[in-house]
Write a structure and sequence with these properties.
The chain is about 35% helix and about 20% strand. The protein has helices spanning about 15-25, 30-35, 65-80, 80-85, 95-105, 115-120, 135-145, 160-175, 190-200, 235-240, 250-255, 265-280, 380-390, 400-420, and strands spanning about 55-60, 85-90, 110-115, 125-130, 150-155, 180, 205-215, 290-295, 310-315, 320-325, 335-340, 340-345, 350-355, 365-370, 420-425, 430. The protein has a 10-stranded mixed β-sheet with strand order 14-13-12-11-7-10-9-8-15-16.
């Protein structure tokens, strides 16, 4: 049975919820796990090795469960020669995952770790892939960049809003290369759309729409529980981090996306894949100005997070983003970007430009096809990251895009859980209601 309490349960008012979120603090016993430095409090951040165009990049992996192993360890190891990289080290709190990674990578036992800080102490590691549970993204990313490592962070970038800006500020200060693991950012069609928007081909933006919908009769994220997971085979306290103290629970370990302590559900796991690309397609990704989100969980009740959700986001330019997500109905909405003069329709590896009727004499319909890469191309995602590490520039899922998308995701979660429409000020980084009341962002251990 779940150890968690539903924060939106009957009897908890919005005002009480806001106050609780504002005063919540991390559990002291877990705090030292998060904050213990690798190089000492008074030492300057490492600058890392200067990597030339032909230098081999040594990659470490923190979090080598399903996503970490299959998407990152396997793909990078199998393409070592193609990328001129070495899959050099791995870290995980579950011994079964460590052993699997060690065997597949073909490394000695001294190259796998239970504690990510040991991996970061290695001067030969140039870049770190972070595919942990969401609440560990920020601590590992920040410590990696402070240690001079470049980072690829699985989506969502962080669990909560404040630590998103911690990652952003650290990345800017250390000048490390960051890639977000929202793989559809690599699809060329979104970048083609951005060019068309900047060229004025569809006029002022009106609305972008997309969806990520599934139908899981047994409940989304109810993955099989590996019987080899025991209190002896996993560092449970480390896995919990600063989410709080609770008894060992295999359901939480393998099905953590169902629970608010560790994840924001559909928003972070599915809709992150749609929010990032549509922000790219706008031609000028902005911080949101207003976000509202609805959600229900009347069909799958074994969780904290909704099984059906809708997000509406306004941006300062007047552009609105609408994304729908579901794990109980697989029918989505057509992907399109609506402008005042024309509309862009997305499908596969192509973009169709169609004029709005009043502007038919000014804009010719046109199809742009064969736009590659297309689909979930993780090899392209890794190649883009390695290329920027060597040659400079910006990754397709760079830090400036990622922090803007993270604000949308974080405010959407807050909106749904607090039953509020929320406004964001990018200069002050403050969240308010429509009446001007400041709202403290959700934070641990909520």
């Amino acid at each position: 049975m779940s150890q968690l309490k539903d924060q939106s349960a009957t009897g908890s008012t919005r005002r009480t919820f806001i106050k609780q979120a504002a005063t919540a603090t991390a559990v002291a016993g877990a705090d030292s796990i998060i904050k213990t430095p690798v190089y000492g409090q008074n030492q300057a951040p490492s600058t890392g090795r200067v990597i030339g165009a032909n230098d081999r990049i040594n990659v470490g992996f923190v979090g080598v469960g399903s996503q970490g192993f299959n998407t990152h360890v396997r793909q990078i190891k199998n393409n070592e020669a193609k990328h001129n990289v070495t899959a050099a080290a791995a870290c995980d709190v579950f011994s079964e995952y460590r052993d699997r990674a060690q065997e597949f990578m073909g490394v000695k036992s001294g190259n796998v770790y239970n504690d990510h800080r040991k991996l970061l102490e290695r001067k030969d590691i140039d870049a770190v892939v972070i595919a942990t549970v969401d609440h560990w993204h920020a601590p590992v990313a920040i410590e990696s960049m402070e240690a001079g490592k470049h980072v690829l962070i699985e989506k969502p970038m962080t669990r909560y809003l404040s630590e998103g800006f911690d990652v952003y500020d650290t990345c800017k200060r250390t000048k490390r290369v960051m890639q977000i693991g929202a793989v559809f950012c690599l699809e060329e069609k979104w970048h083609k759309a951005a060019q068309l928007v900047r060229d004025g081909m569809i006029g002022p933006l009106v609305l972008g729409q997309s969806s990520y919908c599934r139908n899981s009769p047994k409940g989304e994220w109810n993955y099989a529980i590996n019987p080899k997971l025991t209190e002896a085979s996993v560092d449970w306290k480390r896995w919990l981090g600063k989410t709080g103290t609770r008894r060992f629970n295999a359901d939480h370990f393998f099905r953590w996306r169902k629970y608010n302590h560790y994840c924001c559900g559909i928003l972070g796991d599915l809709l992150a894949h749609k929010i990032h690309p549509l922000m790219i397609a706008s031609g000028n990704p902005e911080f949101p100005s207003r976000v509202t989100c609805l959600g229900t969980k009347e069909i799958t009740t074994d969780r904290d997070v909704p099984d059906n959700t809708q997000v509406l986001t306004n941006f300062p330019s007047g552009y609105t983003l609408m994304v729908l997500g579901s794990t109980v109905n697989q029918q989505g909405v057509p992907e399109m970007l609506r402008g005042h003069h024309g509309t862009l329709y997305f499908g596969g590896d192509k973009v169709d430009l169609k004029p709005e009727t009043p502007f038919g004499d000014e804009i010719d319909p046109e199809t742009f096809s064969g736009l590659k890469p297309s689909g979930a191309d993780f090899v392209a995602e890794h190649a883009d990251w390695f290329d920027v590490i060597r040659n400079g520039g910006e990754t397709k899922g760079n830090i400036d895009l990622s922090i803007r998308a993270q604000v949308v995701i974080s405010l959407a979660e807050m909106s749904e859980r607090m039953s509020l429409t929320l406004l964001f000020d990018e200069k002050s980084r403050k969240v308010t209601t429509g009446t001007g009341q400041e709202v403290q962002p959700l934070n641990y251990p909520t």
